[in-house]
Amino acid sequence: MTAADSSATTIAVVLYPGLTALDLVGPLQVLTELERFAPRYRTVVVGAHPDPMATDLPLQLTADRTFAEVPHPEVLVVPGGRIGTLRAMRDPGVRAYVRTAAASADVVGSVCTGSLILGAVGLLRGRHATTNWFFAGVLKPLGATYHRQRWIEDGNVTMAAGVSAGIDWALHLVARLTDEATARRVQLALDYDPQPPFGGIDWAHIPPVPRAMRGAIGLLAPLIATKPERLTRAGA
């Protein structure tokens, strides 16, 4: 941060190649809106470099600051994705930043499979956690207990379930950082009043193909977690 921002409470949202755009943009919209009502907060997008990075959409995103420029944010937010996240779990730069930033942060958060990155550096051992339901089986090898909840908290670690849950979770985070009244003001400013045209997800009747895909990921979970776990034990 610049000298002018030195007194701000910094919320750092991590950008890395291949993440799910809404995992980042949804919470970013909420947290940036917070600045209108609580000016002491500053939300920045941080990445390994300032060059545009690919996402899961035909859209590239660029970090405001590098990891080195925001080493100790008060709040750390790690978005998720699919292949990009699995790569980030093993990426030395992402791992080092998440581990060191989390060590001094007051609140550590994740959206969707961003929780797998937290787990990959040892931050979820013994914790209750959530993630995208497809990847729920990967949490166990990383030492966490999965719960199918829209968001969950365990100490200073707070996590959202899949993708769109990041918006709900970010409003919860706003309330945690300030108060419910401020979170409601942010919600109203964003006109956030979700009314899915077909109602909520019928978890009891998930179609066979998605169920099979989730099962396959569950079977691969130990392999997905092996290298990140080995890196963590080695201190990398």
UniProtKB/TrEMBL annotation:
InterPro entries: Class_I_gatase-like (IPR029062), DJ-1/PfpI (IPR002818), INH-QAR (IPR052158)
Protein name: DJ-1/PfpI family protein
Organismal lineage: Bacteria, Bacillati, Actinomycetota, Actinomycetes, Geodermatophilales
Occurrences of domain DJ-1/PfpI (ranges): 10-175
Source organism (scientific name): Geodermatophilus sabuli
Family annotation (CDD domains): GATase1_PfpI_2
A GO biological-process term: regulation of DNA-templated transcription
